[in-house]
Structures are given as structure tokens and as C-alpha cells.
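Hi R.,

Here's the chain you asked about this morning:
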Amino acid sequence: MTVGIITDSVSDLSPQLVKELGISVVPLRVRFGEDVYRDGIDLTPDQFYTKLKTSKVFPNTSVPSPGDFVQAYDKMAEKTDEIVVILVTSRLSATYEVGRQSIEKMKRKCRVELFDSRTATMAEGFIVMAAAKAAQSGASLDEVIEVARKAAPRVDFLAAFDTLAYLRRGGRIGRAQAFLGSLLSINPLINLREGVVEPAGRTRSRSKAIDRLYEFAADYAKIEEMAVENTACPEDAEALVERLGAIFPKERIHRSRMTPVIGTHTGPGLLLVAVMGDKD
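And the predicted structure, written out as C-alpha cells:
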């Protein structure tokens, strides 16, 4: 039987990829006051960013419930007796811990192994994709885990923000705390290192920040996967895709409007490049 692959909505995989690779996605949740939405299901990115700008209530997020995981596990267990679950960094979210605790609540007997991606966004998604392709090719559970383990250090992203105010408000600021204060008006750059938000530089203009995103990708000697993601700045994203076409085929660049859960912690104006590849 083919090993089943499950991930969370923070991996930002498109519905097309999810269907093509047979991946099951467990959604996190976004809450506006008393209204709760499943990430990417009950609230589209366009609806979310409109609501973010107009709502008087600041949104927050919550992890999937144990029931959400159990339902996903049991449904996948109808088709296989081995499941690999690849999740957002446990250092930013309790999703991994809930996923782990939910295994013992399953109704069906099935081997389930969790993998902490130590990252998020399409960087996490690339690990999931690699694992799913290995599973489809007939790899065993242990072999799929090994594929994920080898893929993890080969993924990275760089993100340009208009402001870190949303990260600060949501408590995900990490070591980028050093950018706060008077630097909130400067275009900061961040990434994740060992699952924690890290400062990656700052620029005094949006155009310079976008230059840095291009340079980040151009620094790779070999690129297998690339994604350009944004929260509410599609024009910047398309311009960056056009520019990146000089170093990687444009038709192979994944384009994504980030899910509401990510947007809650980043706000509008985020532009991100994720890469799977090698710099040497």
C-alpha cells in the first residue's frame, strides 16, 4: 500500500497539488471574535484580507482539534496502514503536539509517524511534496521519513514585511524582536532558523527589499522548487516572478496567496520567496 501523507494548512499547498499528490490537509483555524473559520476552507484569502482591513476585531488563530486529526488519520487509514504526518514547526505552533497526542485516539489500527518540518509556508510544502512523490513511487514509511529528513535542510525562505506589528501582536516575533521600536517603519526581512523567526536584514525601501528576495534565490547554484507567495500584494508578487524567470522557469514557480492563518500573523504586504535546492 502507498504510504499516506498528511500535513497542515500552513504548508500552503494548492488544491491542485494536494489532489495530484494525494495529500490530506488538516486546517488550522482563524477566529474573528465569535466567528471561527477553517483555514482556506470557510474563508478564502481574498475574503480574509478584506476582513482584516475592515474588521474592528483583530483575528487570532488556533490549532486543529484532536478530533480534526483523528478524522484525517482514520480516513487515510481506510486506504493505507502507514501514514507520515509533516507539520509546521513545533517552535511556533502547538499543531505538532496535538497531532502527536491524537494518534492514540484513532479508531483504526495504523502506524503513524510525525515529522517536524522546522519551517512553514511553501518551504514546509516542499518537504511535503518530496515525501508525497516518494510515497507515490512506492517508498516505505521509513524511506519517506528519510526523504523528508534530507529535504528539510534544503528548503529555506526569505520574507519581506511592510511591518512586523502583526508578528509582534501575535507573539511570533522571535529574535526579530530586535527590529522593533523605531524600525517598525523600515522594511524588515525575516526567515526561520531551527523553527524560530530570525531577523535577516532590513532595507529602507520596498524596492530594495524585493531586490534582496531576488538575490536570495539567485544565490542558489541548483534550484529544484521555487515559490513566490504574498498576503495582499499580488502586483509585487507577479513582478518578482517575472524577474525570477531569469534564473528559474517562470512556469514552474509556484504562486500562492498565503492562507488566512499565516496572514493573521504577518498582515498585508508580505512578500516571500521559498526555495528547495543547493547553494554549492
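The chain has two domains: 4-153, 154-278.

Let me know if you need anything else.
M.
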